[in-house]
Amino acid sequence: KMFAQSKDDKKRVESILQSLGFTTGKNDTINPQAFDFETFFNFYVHLTKRAEVERVFNEIVNSKKVMTAHQFVDFLNKTQRDPRLNEILHPYADTTRAKDLIALYEPNKYNAGRGQLSFEGFLRYLLSEDNNIMAATKFDLSHDMDQSLAHYFINSSHNTYLTGHQITGKSSAEMYRQCLLAGCR
């Protein structure tokens, strides 16, 4: 029912799930224990081909398959770093920091041992907590979130209630319910 509006999306998701070893029959289910973070990450990577991230990676490594620690330092300092940051409070990345990040996010142990970052490791870094767009302190709740729903304002776009395709899909208040169950207030 989820893919009623887009048969191509359904085929794509089924194909990816099958490539990961899951059955995709109408009544099949996926055991949550079998769908661990690594499996989810692989599913996500296959589902969302990130051509723009591949382009950035390839510009850095040229024709190579891996990024060196020095190239990663340049990326961290020249591309990722906010130039408005204070150098004392937020020092520039160095090779040691780059190698630590590579060791953390590079799934290929051989590459990690050589201080090299593959595209998958690069993507893992970009999607990690070490690369959050917001400061970690902003994730801490500073307001009372125990009141009834009527005590809060809900800020949402007109797309929040859509359950499928933006133009031809159906709408439902269920999407708001899902947001609230996920902890949004």
From TrEMBL:
Compartments, as annotated in UniProt: Cytoplasm
Entries under InterPro entries matching the protein: EF-hand-dom_pair, PI-PLC_fam, PLC-like_Pdiesterase_TIM-brl, PLC_EF-hand-like, PLipase_C_PInositol-sp_X_dom
Enzyme class: hydrolase
GO molecular function terms listed in the Swiss-Prot or TrEMBL record: phosphatidylinositol-4,5-bisphosphate phospholipase C activity
UniProt key word Oxidoreductase: no
Catalytic activity from the UniProt record: a 1,2-diacyl-sn-glycero-3-phospho-(1D-myo-inositol-4,5-bisphosphate) + H2O = 1D-myo-inositol 1,4,5-trisphosphate + a 1,2-diacyl-sn-glycerol + H(+)
Phosphatidylinositol-specific phospholipase C X domain: residues covered: 145-185
Signal sequence annotation: none
SUPFAM superfamilies: EF-hand (SSF47473), PLC-like phosphodiesterases (SSF51695)
Alphabetic keyword roster: Cytoplasm, Hydrolase, Lipid degradation, Lipid metabolism, Transducer
Listed EC numbers: 3.1.4.11
GO cellular component assignments: cytoplasm
One BP term from GO: phosphatidylinositol metabolic process
Phosphoinositide-specific phospholipase C EF-hand-like domain boundaries: 43-134
Keyword Cytoplasm belongs to the record: yes
Protein name: Phosphoinositide phospholipase C
Taxonomic lineage from the root: Eukaryota, Metazoa, Ecdysozoa, Arthropoda, Hexapoda
Gene that encodes it: PIP1
